[in-house]
């Protein structure tokens, strides 16, 4: 039996999203830019999907632009956002615990002459509003901070930071990578205070290959992909209608966050009982738990669990085997990092999945002690 517990890397496509994608491929398959009937049908579907995603995000439909993924949304917001404000300054504020999509964008901008202040989080992985305001300068043109960390589940209070930035008279752009937050913790774009918000489809049971960028009304963000005039001239390229339809369908589903949070609580209890020496990061996200078994190698544990049909990861899938920069930034000891695992829950997980994980880790522990 399979026990998939790596939902922070990707989620299983839900039946509603798969059905919506199939309909877009086999029935409403026209190009939304075409003016004849099949094109008009596709355009109607596109408008409906945009409205559904916008509703889930708490935004106006015209503030949502479809992209290929969260990475593209991050790249676009950060690179074009900073470049569009370079006449006002070249200073950017971010953190040491961002996703590689943000980190690489910032590295690119540094090569272009921008200066980046990367804030260190507290021991729980959270970036405080005070640290952001303390780093603010007259030439700061962009602040970009992750809302929910993809490795630890640490939640940074984006609304509080936005409010403090406004009080401080900040006039630059504020972007948040909300890929792990969307449909997982409650927030509404129109109340959050961010100018730019990145989200992704495959983290909420849609298909891979679709994301969106919220661009607050009034914010002028130059296109990142050039060509045609799709997405109101903001992103060129024929819209990926099957993926967009799946994204909208996934947005319409109940994320069952209370149930997921209760599963996380059960997970903590089971692991503490099964492996007394285990270390767990207590973070606010309901769906992510970072654990560590010092003295073990993450890869060994993952292989041991995989043989028993249990799937977890050591860090972000984008890291591809490299040591977690997130756990290093929060001050975790190297031995603990080397034995770290990330567990990602979704609405399709059950207590049986958690029991299988606990039994697998307990089995690994007993095997080690018997040698």
Essential attributes:
Aspartate Aminotransferase, domain 1; alpha/beta; 40% helix; 371 residues; 3-stranded antiparallel β-sheet; globular; 13 helices; 7-stranded mixed β-sheet; 12 strands; Aspartate Aminotransferase, domain 2
CATH superfamily of the largest domain: Type I PLP-dependent aspartate aminotransferase-like (Major domain)
- CATH third-level topology of the largest domain: Aspartate Aminotransferase, domain 2
CATH class of the largest domain: Alpha Beta
Strand order of the largest sheet: 2-8-7-6-5-3-4
Relative helix content: 40-55%
| Spans of at least 5 consecutive residues with low confidence | none
General description of the model:
This protein has 371 residues and is of the alpha/beta class. It has two domains: 3-12 and 255-370, Aspartate Aminotransferase, domain 1 (Alpha-Beta Complex); 15-251, Aspartate Aminotransferase, domain 2 (3-Layer(aba) Sandwich). It has helices at residues 15-26, 37-57, 70-84, 100-111, 129-135, 158-167, 189-192, 241-251, 257-274, 298-306, 325-329, 334-338, 351-370, and strands at 3-4, 64-67, 91-95, 115-119, 140-146, 173-177, 196-200, 211-215, 279-280, 288-292, 310-311, 340-344. The strands form three sheets. Strands 2-8-7-6-5-3-4 form a seven-stranded mixed sheet, sandwiched between helices. Helix 3 (70-84) runs parallel beside helix 4 (100-111), helix 5 packs parallel to helix 6 and helix 9 runs parallel beside helix 13 (351-370). It is globular and about 65 Å long. The mean pLDDT is 96.
